[in-house]
Amino acid sequence: MSPALRASALALAACFALLLCCTLFVRALDMAGIPAPAPLNSSANPAKVEGRAVGQTLSVRGNLSVEGLLSGDLQEALSQKVGDMFPLRDAGLLAYGGLQRGVIGLANLACGYPVTPAYYGAAYAVDWGREAVVPIAAKVDEANLEGMRAMAAAVSAAQESHPHVRFVYDQLWDMYSSDKNPTYALQTGTYSKEVFDENLGGLLDGRVSVVWDPIASEEELDEEWLRTEHHWTLERALASYSRIGEVLGWEEVPYEGAVRVSDRWHGANARRALFLGFSDELWDLPTDFSGLTVRTAGGEEVLRGARGQLAAGEEPASWGGPYDGYDSWYGPADELVYENGAARNGRTCLVVGLSYEKPIDPYIARNYETTVCLDVVNVGKGKPLSDYIDEYRVDDVVIQLGLTSYESVMERSAGFLGLGE
């Protein structure tokens, strides 16, 4: 071996040994109950930049079995667990993303595209002009279309068996699929209203009221949607609330007197893109929801998110950090029941959706004595839609889903669609 190769090999071995020692040292501190600095990562401060989607983080304990070993899920869960506690993992991931963006930027000098991939093979892109991180517009997928058709069948069957119930279907043409997404024009085979009509909207029972709910303009995308998240602002969420409310006779909620509740946080888009160059603010209305009681499906009273905890005078369990301002403020996805003692109208609403509807759940609840909120995308539901209608004696059903979310509904909530486990 030449001296140069020997020196390179020794340097590589030394780096590996240093990283291994750092990992073992941090792990020893962690086991001893001594908190390590956040950048070093530990069970108390695991790596957070990667921002895995719901369902992508595996449980070691849940896969501690022969089946988990044979399927490889146990090994993957262990790899995630160790990786999340690897020293300086966040810094390394960000450096890796930055290096690739630099190469992509050089290649883009000749083309001058205003939007470029966050890194090679990324599902997210950096919109440099708007200072935003966006998902790359989705292509039509047959598994998602199958989910759309299954949802149409389930809703139509529920409407047929419950003719007294009013159904409103609010279809979001959201950032993942919208023609206002800056990457939409660079893709082929993308989603459109025609795709929705052919695979869902046109298949619904004629008594179901359908609301087509797109991002209307580039101005709306710039002002009413978050810059490092795929979610919308409360202002835009209330616009959807108004469209549904026109059908069901809900009270109007003007977007006036908003206050900033959080600034300079990074959403899931930015984290998965490994790019924290842009940040978001979060604004909310100082609406009094003290007349509402929120319970889990098991009957336990809860305070939803930092918003509910602060309103009740409690210190939020998770708030004020650099990540996930939207989910931390509005609370995690779950099956929740809102009780409105002031309504006394004996009416019940079932809201079927995903994370987009969280900001407007309490506003919907002010129109009913009972409001049941289900997330069938992020939290699996095995009970059929009709069973929920019967159990809660529902008067109105509101369904609000993103155009690319139906494959997830099929995977996690097949029972809700009446397809069995």
How far do the termini sit from each other?
60 Å
Parts with pLDDT < 50 across at least 5 consecutive residues: none
**What pattern of helices and strands is seen along the backbone?**
HHHHEEEHEHEHHEHEEEHHEEHEHEH
Major β-sheet profile = 8 strands, mixed
What is the arithmetic mean of pLDDT?
Answer: 88
Helical content band: 25-40%
The count of DSSP E runs of length 2 or more, i.e. the number of strands, is: 13
Helix and strand content put the structural class at alpha/beta
Q: Provide a count of the helices.
A: 14
Question: What shape does the CA trace take?
Answer: globular
Radius of gyration: 24 Å
Give the percentage of residues in beta strands: 15-25%
What strand line-up does the widest sheet have? 5-4-13-11-12-10-8-9
Outline of the structure:
The chain is an alpha/beta fold and 421 residues long. It has 14 helices and 13 strands.
Q: Can you tell me about this structure?
A:
The protein has 421 residues and is an alpha/beta fold. Helices cover 37% and strands 16% of the residues. An 8-stranded mixed sheet has the order 5-4-13-11-12-10-8-9, with helices on both faces. Strands 1-2-3 form a 3-stranded antiparallel sheet. Strands 6-7 form a two-stranded antiparallel ribbon. β8 and β9 form a beta hairpin. The longest helix has 29 residues, at 3-31. The N and C termini lie far apart (60 Å). The model has no long low-confidence stretch (mean pLDDT 88).
